[in-house]
Design brief:
alpha/beta, Multidrug-efflux Transporter Regulator, Chain: A, Domain 2, five-stranded parallel β-sheet
């Protein structure tokens, strides 16, 4: 056989080509700035140099995103982008150090990012763009990628991208065998948690998902209710890291109220009295605690008006009680899903 000149080994891509890439919209969201500003920084000041795909999309590496985040911090402190654009990262960090705000170096630009969400479901991604969903939030989450299916999400993950906080899957019909695919996508994106918003599902499918640790709920029809659900998910995670930038409003000491009550006292009382499949009485205890927390929340709101001298303190207690209520509402939902029980009826009037 005649020898050939073809190489015996296929060339491997360089490490740089294997780095995760982010589009300009995702970079702008992570840095907390408009896309138009990012483009001005790039085109007018050459502050960052992303690569461009044949179709014209700009792609940024993690190092680019880190640089943009640091530039954003420094410009917010009064520095002109024109004076910063030509500086290298070490010089920029020296400027930040002189201001006492040098970020810690990590594999991902998370020192300036809020909650990172990957969404599976185009309709859900559209809903998350509505103002009403995140109106009461202190700092809304950031959608870093959107996919049509779990398989597509898994395929797109590089395995080297920074971990995300939440994989959010919107599904019309939840089936018994969907759990492995969800777990694979969650592992591929290194998501700290997974949540499923379904429209139709059987008890077995819901129970399997909940048993895996995923938070499962029938997709809220109302935008405010959707925001409240997502708010409760981030609140549950933030309770273990009290200095995280995506603490819920009540724990960030803002004036934003907690979402309205989801369940009224009568339906919670009925839920607490139902027989449980668990050996303990935790389902009843969760429902009873919710009644007490909601009552204390209302009591604090009343005290705010009756005691002007202590209004600020009672307003603080009111917000903390609201945050605790949202956490326990999420806990009750998970308990109900695990046991295949219907949720209590929705509250007819909000309690603040």
């Amino acid at each position: 056989m005649a020898p050939t000149n073809e190489p015996t080994d296929t060339p491997r891509p360089s490490p740089a080509s294997q780095q995760p890439r982010f589009r300009s919209g995702a970079v702008a969201r992570m840095a907390g700035m408009p896309v138009s500003t990012l483009r001005i920084w790039e085109q007018r000041y050459q502050a960052v140099g992303p690569t461009t795909t044949p179709t014209g999309h700009r792609l940024y590496t993690s190092a680019d995103v880190e640089r943009v985040g640091l530039l954003r911090q420094l410009t917010e402190q009064g520095h002109a982008i024109g004076s910063l654009a030509g500086l290298g990262m070490e010089q920029l960090q020296s400027v930040a150090t002189s201001l006492g705000q040098a970020p810690s170096r990590t594999d991902a630009p998370q020192h300036f990012a809020t909650t990172q969400i990957v969404v599976v479901g185009q309709a859900m991604a559209r809903r998350l763009q509505r103002t009403a969903v995140f109106r009461p939030w202190a700092q809304p989450p950031q959608v870093v990628a959107v996919f049509d299916s779990l398989a597509e999400a898994t395929q797109a993950a590089t395995g080297t991208q920074p971990p995300i906080d939440l994989l959010l899957w919107q599904v019309s019909g939840l089936q018994d065998g969907d759990l492995p695919e969800l777990e694979t996508a969650q592992q591929a994106w290194r998501a700290r948690s997974a949540a499923v918003a379904y429209r139709f599902a059987g008890a077995a499918a819901r129970k399997a998902m909940a048993g895996s640790g995923a938070v499962v709920v029938r997709e809220p029809a109302d935008d405010a209710a959707l925001g409240a659900w997502l708010w409760s998910l981030t609140a549950a995670q933030a309770s273990t890291t009290p200095t995280h930038p995506w603490l819920p409003p009540a724990l960030c000491f803002t004036d934003s109220p907690a979402p309205a009550r989801r369940f009224d006292d009568a339906s919670l009382t009925e839920f607490a009295g139902q027989p449980s499949g668990m050996a303990c009485e935790c389902p009843s205890h969760v429902a009873e605690l919710l009644i007490q927390i909601a009552g204390f929340e209302a009591y604090c709101a009343d005290c705010t008006h009756r005691s002007p001298a202590d209004a600020e303190l009672h307003a603080y207690l009111h917000r903390v009680a609201g945050a605790a209520r949202v956490l326990f509402e999420t806990a009750l939902e998970r308990v109900a899903t695990a046991e295949g029980r219907p949720l209590p009826c929705a509250a007819q009037s909000p309690i603040r």
